[in-house]
Structures
1.
Amino acid sequence: MPVVPRRDLESLPKYIPGRTVRGAIKLASNEISDGPLPSVVETISRLTPTVNRYPDGDSQVLRERLVRDLDVDVAQIAIGCGSVALLQQLVQALCSPGDEVLFAWRSFESYPIVTQVAHAVSVTVPLSEGHGLDLDAMLAGITPRTKMIFICNPNNPTGTAVYRDELARFIDAVPENVLVVLDEAYKEFVTDANVPDGVQFVRARSNVAVLRTFSKAYGLAGLRIGYAIASEVVCEALRQVCITFSVNAIAQVAAIASLDAGDEMFERCRSITVERDRVRDSLIAMGYEVPPSQANFVWLPLAQRATVFTDYMLDRKLIVRPFVGEGIRVTVGAAEENDLFLAAAREFLGVARPLSVKSCASIE
Ligand SMILES: *Cc1c(COP(=O)(O)O)cnc(C)c1O
């Protein structure tokens, strides 16, 4: 008998990474164009001679550094290899086979994957007309088997955010035994004061967890490090299912150095959010529909035109992220990169305008 993997893996959705093409401008993976902060590069480059040693398995120093900014107990922090690892650990640690994980769709691509890998069941709720999370519909989607709810705020890939009041009402209505996971991967790009800092809900309740990452605003995507803020019980469970020593030593030090350079990071985010609003305003002026974004990307709900648009951009050496039949997500880059994208988006309209959505669909 040959070795046979789990049968259900045949139906596991694939994570489609943003493409990398030599010489092209990559606006497909929500990375920071500028790289890590210079002080962080400097600090971690000194560490390479020490990699013969195992890292601190508890990331104790990083956790203590995080506590200084977060006003929670050190036992309420868990570190993981990026917040995607923490998502999977959460499902592994909390769900029994067949338990339900509820999330909006379209949302972050990893949600259905980590759910199925851990033998839980995805239950999805469509986004609202305005491409945002429909919290009332999500409440209605809760069943006795629901164990966890992922709330991506702001939502990847649409950029929309839910506000403090509606989120508070939602959390109040969720049963106590269901964990609400607030995925705040893009928190540093939020400029609307009505969008809450999820940690306020963790302080008040034991069934809320917040996930943050150093991959986006801090520019450490390649090092793989993120953290969870949750109750002690949830954090202990996260540590139990974490692969021993998986969070590497350089990533831990880079994270601390990044937090120490917080002012510099926020300044950089500020210029990205100014660009974001400029890109969105320009696209709207051209006639595109673009939902308001609180992240470092914008969403164009192009439906059947998503593929043609993506190919058109690629011909011009611009890589955007398509979601076939739904839309495209464009990461906000440096001003010159955004200018090139905007020029191409304007040209595309000249080509595509005579075509109705329907005739474009037949092109695909
Ligand atoms: C990028 C992203 C993450 C973070 O991924 P890492 O594993 O930390 O690199 C988490 N959630 C969402 C919604 C994201 O877009």
2.
Amino acid sequence: MWIRKRIDISWRDLSRAAVYCLMARRADVEQTRVEALWSESALACLSVRSGWDLLLQATAFPPGSEVLVSALTIPDMVRIIEDHGLVPVPLDVETETALPSPETIEAGVTPNTRAVLLAHLFGATAPLDRHVAVARRHGLLFVEDCAQAFRGLGDAGHPQADASLVSFGFIKTATALGGAVTIVRRPDLLNEMRRRQHEYPIQPKREHLRRGLHCAVLKLLSSRIGARSLLTLLRICGRNVDRFLNSRTRGFPRHRMFEMIRRRPSTPLLRLLRRRIEAFDIDAQQAREQRGRRLVRQLEPVAACPAADVEQHAFWVIPVLVEDPEELRRKLLAAGFDTTQADSMCVVQPPCPSGTASPENARRMLDQAVFLPFYEALPIRELDRMARIITPGKPG
Ligand SMILES: *Cc1c(COP(=O)(O)O)cnc(C)c1O
């Protein structure tokens, strides 16, 4: 059984994570080192959500201000906007880029709009020049959420974005079992964020250690035999597999989200983060891209993969859009491929009394997407077999 997802960390780095828990160095010293890898605009945070929350604190937009957001994102990013007394306004996304078009941004701007937050989804980083230009023209703060799109230090976000948010959370590329780097190109905002972050408590080391152990268990369970045993066991116990696996990989418990994100990263987290960034294997990433393109080529045009033709692409995940996702998931499972639907993402709904249309294409993408297992351990011949199951009857 090929499980839906494997956590992107080696046993070697995981054992290092445990050793780093013994380090006595101060967290702020280690934080400076991580930030120095990027630029003077970098702020290392406990998570992307922590960074986004700090950024909104620093901007202090008047209550009721509108924030335009990609209609497809994770619910917590939207919750944070609401918690600041601001109004998230969804922008529908296009299938080709998984981003809203510049025209959609233009159409969403009102006299109350203060900011725009676009999420690069699935690993794709589509060009943003025209989006940035629209935001500039209207004097909006422009933020890009690169949580799913890390491809190494060489790609540190759009140089004209006011902020770029990169995640090293549990299920993300090059995970550090948590952590994030926010690049904030407005020194006034960066200083204010830094000042506020400094008042936060530091994440306890034992929490980081616990996450490492949890990760080790998940790694064991995601081997081929482990995955088969796990799925069989869950079925016997009558547990919902999707719900179980999602709850295992969520970063923080739901009801305590704000308490959890308003903390500073611990020394061992920062040390692991530095290691993951410094030792990031660009060659392996390029090989992944090539395999991703190969798979997508085999699926198209029978099954569409959103944003698959974007030039800069990490192929963090590969969603395929089909009319009947349930049926495809059953078929793939029977052939040994565990898949998922985008349970961790949501479609942002327009604010209540509003003229904005509901984001139809985002809804359709989310409803029709099946996320395929895709990681280094999956050999090409298995990827090919998976493609043939998805596109039966496709010649060649
Ligand atoms: C994972 C993710 C986040 C949150 O990242 P954390 O570092 O876990 O807070 C935000 N946005 C998107 C689109 C994500 O996929």
3.
Amino acid sequence: MKAVLPDEKIPRRWYNILPDLPEPLAPPLDPETNEPMEPEKLLRIFARELVKQEMSRKRYVEIPGKVRELYAKIGRPTPLFRATNLERALGTPARIYFKYEGATITGSHKINTALAQAYYAKEQGIERLVTETGAGQWGSALSLAGALLGLKVRVYMARASYRQKPYRKTVMHLYGAEVYPSPSDRTKVGRKFLKEDPDHPGGLGIAISEAIEDVLGDEKARYSLGSVLNHVLMHQTVIGLEAKEEMAEFEEPDVIIGCVGGGSNFAGLAYPFVREVLEGKADYEFIAVEPRAAPSMTRGVYTYDFGDSGGYTPKMKMHTLGHTYYVPPIHAGGLRYHGLAPTLSVLINHNIVRPISYHQTEVFRAAELFARTEGIIPAPESAHAIKGVVDRALEAKKSGKEEVILFNLSGHGLLDLKGYEDYLEGRLTDYEPEHFPALEG
Ligand SMILES: *Cc1c(COP(=O)(O)O)cnc(C)c1O
């Protein structure tokens, strides 16, 4: 059972949650002055339209025609499936639906914001976009967006992934992007980390620092971020806006579940539904799933922190493990981040979204069950959502509750088979972090 919308049903506007939040968002702070960030400084880092969207109080922002056209080209609207085989295998009275973002050309939701960001940069006359990538999903998406819109793309890729995921690098090269392992010797901050350890595995936070330093040295370049920021989460709401129409062919969901790294795919599916809850028109439950190795939602502190490890970005008020926290090398590379989207942090504080965390072995076990029943091999990131769904459906079995679960399958895992091999051969480590030094100091 599935719903597929025609091209004309690609949403015409993104939903911006800022005017509907239960409290105003704390402003980003300039790391040099600790005062609210001057927009001029942000304009040197991000394309103009994105800075505008980042602070916009407009509830809906029109999607440019060209971006809608490209959304159709890369596979939007994505299909929404009912996981009947999984339901049967679990013996649950719950009905399980999922939005499948793995059906886009680059295999995850990341392309939804990559196309928008590349479009606005091109409109402004920017020549190059510079970014970081952890697992390679974001780098692949931005590389394709650059190829489709005629922009150069440069990617700093965490060295551990650069080695473990050579095929992602090949994808980016095929789309014409430059890819450097991070930390690299191309930036000051990269050289600093290399001096500490010439074989430094890198991480998202370090790669962000390198990308920003790179951009500050090139007037015609701008930085592009694949998660966390308000405008990124807003671009992802095409997922939830489509899902609402698709679910209308079936039934209303009771529970909405997604995995969380920075929060963009979760927000993309959930925020159009959150809006109804904030307006008192519905009472959906929202569950956000993260890894135990990077537990910013369940064990982080709500405070101002940097978005990167080098301390270059504005400080944002969010749930964080501290920007110096080194996230252990779990296979869900896209979830290896110390912080969290500020808007999602607010929704957690107000108990609108409930966070939970899992170890990677139990997550891979749920992914294996999903592959054997529904056929799709999920990205290890998305598999966190699946584990959340399985547990919820088993609770429903105990209580006999016929609830309707909707989750986001943010990407496929066909380029993550190393992780699956390690799982099948019993080589996974379940990291249980004990200390978060930056939070204790
Ligand atoms: C990047 C990524 C994530 C995590 O990022 P969010 O911004 O939290 O969505 C999750 N799933 C996949 C497939 C990804 O590529």
